[in-house]
Amino acid sequence: MNREILVNTLLALLLLAVPLGASAFGEPFYVTLAARIAVLALAAVGINIALGLGGLVSFGHAAFFGLGGYVAGILATHAYEATPLVFGFDGTTSMPVIWLIAVVVCALIALPIGAISLRTTGVYFIMITLAFAQMIYYFAESWPAYGGGDGLSIYIRNEFPGLNTAKPLPYFLICYCMLMLALGLFWLLQGSRFGAALQAARQNATRLSAVGIAPFGIRLTAFVISAMITGVAGALFADLNKFVSPSMLSWHMSGELIVLIILGGKGRLFGPVAGAALYVLFEYALGGLTERWQFFLGLVLLGVVLFARGGLLGLLSGNVRHG
Fold first, then answer.
1. What single DSSP character describes residue 40?
2. pLDDT band at 4 (very low <50, low <70, confident <90, very high)
């Protein structure tokens, strides 16, 4: 077993063991904290497909994170109030149904955004994805039917068959399983011919075209898959907080999710998990001491960028992966 696999295994076991132990000792707060790590890591896994494998620095993935959250909030609200949705459809509190709708909505929105944005590169790609996300953000801000800038409360956490999602531990286990499934998908993509072509497109798109593989379709597919996973994370995040607001759609959220990947290790399988854990622990440990805890996080980020390009996982495994 190489060192990175060992570190990945330890991270997966630690993320599972801490909330199980906290629940056994009657500390639900730490279980909720672990659920937050799992959900943010899930969103970062989605972005890691586009950014880590494809080199697509999207500053608009908060749009998909927020859309997933609004799907959960809107469907739950209509189910709670027993009012019909568009075309007479009813709301629902079923998590699997909400995830499926979130995936479809994010894919349908990501397809045209990706198709337009991928015609640009570099800073233009960053700016155009940011512009699309801000358009959706301002739409949510001015949509009074679902709370506008005040957001939308989810009165009762949505349901998963056979589990009491109102309790912290079952909800954490749902988030953990979804994270492991996303990591499994990332691993499959990374090792597949599609993943090899995506990484080749990141390194030199011209050479990839020269061997008869069009990089546009591969990048667009990666962008859409990335958006779908981020949307599911958004639905779980809304359920975790029982609240969704336009802040989930803002560029600040896109920046936070990218920071998670840089902290943990871009393009690495468990980089998003390590980054999310480090971020949430910083937020918890320093947030109680000062409102300016992001200053210290910024110092850590600066150190990672200057001295540890492989992120936390690179430091722990000592084996930087260059795709």
1. H
2. confident
